[in-house]
Amino acid sequence: MRTWMLYFLLLFSFSFTEAQQIRSVDICVYGASSGGVIAAYTASRLGKKVVLISESLHPGGLSSGGLGNTDIGNKSAITGLARDFYIRIGRNYGNEEQWIFEPHVAEEIFLDYIKRGRFHVSYNQHLISVKKAGKRIQEIIITSNRDELNGISEIIRAKEFIDCSYEDDLMAMASVSYT
Fold first, then answer.
1. Which of 29, 104, 111, 144 is deepest in the core (most CB within 10 A)?
2. DSSP states of the chain as a string?
3. φ, ψ at 121 (rounded to 5°)
């Protein structure tokens, strides 16, 4: 009986270990909000090896999730990749730029940033732990299921982490103080 129990424990531990992948990158962007996609795209274009972690299957956060009416005051204050986004939205509708749009149009543009940036996206992932050395985040563990034993988990090791989640999940789990 003892031998069988030991066998099953070893089998379980090996199968859990094999379910973990380790991914090492320069920059891990946690949260596929609009800012997260653009941060990952920018870092990738600067030659960094990047992974973007998304809790859903749809990159772009609120812009691709239903908030397609931009609250804008001074349009000339919007420059860079943010302006590029609105110009690309406009092209879809036959305009020079567009500030009101359908969510699926925004998602298509974010997917194109991902394609052009050539970085990896881990979709439908949830943060389950953070490992730090002193005050510095060394790695995170994400899983496709909030219950880590039932999902395939992945260890992300990075030189830098950027939290682009709306709720600052990574910062909170890493006990980063902020004001």
1. 29
2. -HHHHHHHHHHHHHHHHHT-EEEEEEEEEE--BHHHHHHHHHHHHTT--EEEE-SSSSTBHHHHHT--B---S-GGG--HHHHHHHHHHHHHHTSS--SB--HHHHHHHHHHHHHHHT-EEE-S-EEEEEEEETTEEEEEEEESSSSTTTS-EEEEEEEEEEE--TT-HHHHHTT----
3. -120, 130
> Rounded to two decimals, what is the model's pTM?
0.85
Contact 119, 51 (CB under 8 A): yes
pLDDT tens digit sequence for 35-44: 999 999 999 9
CA 91 to chain centre: 26
Report yes or no: 101 and 89 within 8 Å, Cβ to Cβ.
yes
